[in-house]
Amino acid sequence: MPVGIMIELPAAVMIADLLAQEVDFFSIGTNDLIQYSIGVDRTNSHVSYLYQPLHPATLRAIKLVVDAAHEAGIAVSLCGEVASDPYCVPLLMGMGIDSISLTPQAIPGIKRIIRQTRMSDCRELLRSVLECRTVGRINSLVMETIFKQYPEELTFFASLLENDELPH
User: Fold this and answer.
1) Would you call 150 helix, strand, or coil by DSSP?
2) Domains, the chain, with CATH or none
């Protein structure tokens, strides 16, 4: 039976290369990883606005884990709200995430985005994002790029959010 681990703590990210030698797969739990990486309680209404999935530290952490997994020849999956976020999926694809786990309501829209996306575009967007120094610049770049490519899908996701069918 394959044995894997959840990567949810910055400590696990920092030793991902060592952990990859001990397991058959990684699964990155983004909700907790983001919260612990940038020190923001996503459930606290006083600070939850600071919870930023596209924070440079978060993106670099995910990339470190993916690179360590692939270097060791193991698969890496990703779960959490990031997997259902149409702005994040092209970046995850650019990193080489092997699979994602998402909310059922998000499957049609994310599937359309994946089918319409060229890997070369994802890698180029990721390269540009990793050069950014601030979350504000990353958000602007990603939103501008993704909205140009997928206006229909983003409208679809907006309607799901309005009807409270997706987590936010």
Assistant:
1) coil
2) 4-162 (3.20.20.60)
If you search the block for the tokens 């540009």, which residue do you land on?
128
Low-confidence ranges of the chain (pLDDT < 70): 153-168
Other Cβ atoms within 10 Å of 155 Cβ, number: 10
pTM strictly above 0.85: yes
Q: Exposure string (b/e) for 79-105, b if CB count within 10 Å is 16 or more?
A: bbbbbbbbbbbbbbbbbbbeebebeeb
Q: How much is the pLDDT for 159?
A: 65
Q: Return d(Cα 55, Cα 110) in angstroms, integer.
A: 21
- Quick: pLDDT tens for 81-102: 999 998 899 999 999 999 999 9
Helix intervals (H) in the chain:
10-14, 16-19, 30-38, 56-71, 89-95, 107-116, 119-130, 135-149, 151-162
